[in-house]
Design goal:
Helix content is about 25%, strand content about 15%. By secondary structure, it is an alpha/beta fold. The protein binds alpha-D-glucopyranose.
């Protein structure tokens, strides 16, 4: 595409084409090299069951992932987070680990993992393992030993208690999959605690032997080239030792159980002490920590960075997912809160547990345009983005319609209120061919019918596709000191439709304006840039058919519905 003369842009009425990328080659020098790698990286979550199937058994595998590394590299991905691929009976699709130091045969062998890590590193892609720290599988040898007798040397590796009385669990804690969080083991006559499924007993982190065994897991994977861990359900590591009942709230939850706050089994202060100890171990091996940190408010989230930035480097901000629909004020507020925390943000927009953002934010008619809008925001904010596989194609949720088709235990137990997470875990869409090119066998979940137009091969050929928009955005982000390291400066805090902000580093200022409404909206660039000489500004990327009108002091662009507008402002 032709670079556009910046002067012309601001002195005449000018129609900008539907998708325009300009001036990417940054004349501004390199990014800030003193920053750790993960601040400049774009992460990509791979759900291995669903990404690429190399042996046509209908399930994705490690060789499949390796075969797609070039695709990820070209897309602009710097690190992959692989959801659990350890040996597991798969009651919660790998989040029930039976051996932390191996690979499930359905995904391949440890040697396949070594090849994957080596090939990823060759391409400058780092590898992050999902570390399921809170619980194991009920088939893990540790648990089998623990449950074998009250006197087992591993008894205290899990949380065992007597019931309150006949048929009564030790307290009122509930499993997040429904029902009591306690299950009676008939052999020893005691209950064990499981925040999640019956098949996922919680480890007892108060036992130093458990802590050491888990620290050893990080050392094991360091030897296999692993650059960091996503800590699964890390807020749940500790429980109140007196097992006090949780406060009950009015009403019922989606499983028909009483609502309650998890006051005594979630976010306990000891979690933070533990993270500081873990961080020392992972720091020694140069591994980064990402946290699955569900929190109720920004202060709780802030605590996960640690009092001296000595806990999790990248705690995920799930509060971001609470923003309702396409709301400029909603996102402005949430971004502002994260910025006020003083930490390095990790906004969450999609993952394997939440409805895909394409479906959450789409209006049914302009979904592709809205997907670009969300990407335009997500990839220009300060912080480390984590893309969920297929997000770059505009993959949508494809939920089961009948209970008997549901694979996710959460959906099986919570149907129909809770449909489970199958919808966001459908196979990656590679081609317009059979099964979207994911497998030549029968895919474990049905492919979303929209694959015929939303797939890698098809979208690669269409310059206006969501995929090519992501490629442009990612290329721009990687070359822009302001987008990588710059401050976030909100513009016009009151606009109900347009979310606008500057990203400013010592070297560069970028203006981002995002029209969250379904109608065209005027946007005054002059006001946004506080009088910076407009003659030297240049558009980097826009999806808008944009007229620029100069009237006196006002230099107004008309942002088309759901438009993304990104420009570099040169003082
Ligand atoms: C985390 C995972 C989720 C899993 C749960 C239990 O929340 O993201 O998929 O079901 O932990 O391990």
């Amino acid at each position: 595409m032709m670079p556009m003369s910046s002067g012309r842009f601001f002195t005449s009425r000018l129609v900008v084409s539907a998708l325009l990328m300009l001036c990417f080659a940054s004349p501004l020098g390199a990014q800030d090299k003193s920053q750790p790698w993960w601040r400049h990286a774009v992460f990509y979550e791979i759900y291995p069951r669903s990404f690429a199937d190399s042996n046509n058994d209908g399930l994705g595998d490690l060789r499949g992932i390796t075969s797609k590394l070039d695709y990820l590299h070209t897309l602009g991905v710097d690190a992959i987070w692989i959801s659990p691929c350890y040996p597991s009976p798969q009651f919660d699709f790998g989040y029930d680990v039976a051996d932390y130091e191996n690979i499930d045969p359905m995904y391949g062998k440890l040697a396949d993992f070594d090849v994957l890590a080596r090939e990823a590193h060759k391409r400058g892609i780092r590898v992050i393992m999902d570390f399921v720290v809170n619980h194991t599988s009920h088939q893990h040898p540790w648990f089998l030993e623990s449950k074998s007798s009250r006197n087992s040397p591993r008894r205290d590796w899990y949380i065992w208690r007597d019931g309150k009385g006949p048929g009564q669990p030790p307290n009122n804690w509930e499993s997040s999959f429904g029902g009591s969080a306690w299950t009676l083991d008939p052999t020893t006559g005691q209950y064990y605690y499981h925040y999640f499924e019956v098949q996922q007993p919680d480890l007892n982190w108060r036992n130093p032997a458990v802590e050491e065994a888990m620290f050893d897991v990080t050392r094991f994977w360091h030897k296999h080239g692993v650059d960091g861990f996503r800590l699964d359900a890390v807020d749940l590591l500790y429980e109140d030792p007196d097992l006090k009942d949780n406060p009950v709230l009015p009403g019922k939850n989606e499983f028909g159980d009483p609502k309650m706050t998890n006051k005594y089994n979630d976010n306990l202060p000891q979690v933070h002490d533990e993270l500081q100890r873990l961080r020392k171990v992972t720091d020694a091996n140069g591994q980064v920590l990402i946290g699955e940190t569900w929190t109720d408010n920004i202060d709780e989230l802030k605590a996960y960075y640690g009092p001296h930035q000595d806990e999790i480097q990248l705690p995920m901000d799930f509060l971001f997912t609470t923003v309702d629909k396409r709301s400029a004020p909603g996102f402005r507020k949430q971004i502002g809160l994260a910025e006020s925390s003083g930490g390095w943000p990790v906004f969450v927009i999609s993952n394997h547990d939440i409805v895909r953002s394409y479906t959450r934010y789409g209006d049914g008619q302009n979904n592709d345009q809205i997907a670009k809008l969300m990407a335009g925001m997500y990839l220009t904010l300060r912080g480390t983005p984590i893309l969920y596989y297929g997000e770059e194609l505009g993959m949508e949720n494809h939920d089961p319609v009948r209970k008997e088709d549901v694979k996710d235990p959460l959906g099986q137990q919570g149907w129909p209120e809770q449909k489970g997470r199958d919808g966001e875990r459908t196979p990656m869409q590679w081609t317009s061919g059979a099964n979207a090119g994911f497998t030549q066998g029968t895919p474990w979940l049905p492919v979303d019918p929209a694959y015929s137009t939303h797939n890698v091969a098809f979208e690669s050929k269409d310059t206006d596709s969501i995929l090519n928009f992501y490629r442009l955005l990612l290329a721009m982000r990687h070359r822009s000191p302001a987008l990588l390291d710059g401050d976030y400066i909100p513009v016009d805090q009151d606009d109900p439709n347009i979310l606008a902000y500057l990203r400013r580093s010592g070297k560069e200022t970028i203006l981002v304006a995002l029209n969250f409404s379904s109608s065209s909206q005027p946007f005054d660039i002059g006001q946004a840039t506080h009088g910076v000489s407009r003659a030297k500004s240049s558009v980097l990327l826009t999806t808008s058919s944009t007229d620029v009108t100069v009237k006196g002091d006002k230099h107004t662009i008309l942002l088309s519905p759901y438009a993304v507008f990104i420009a570099r402002i040169t003082p």
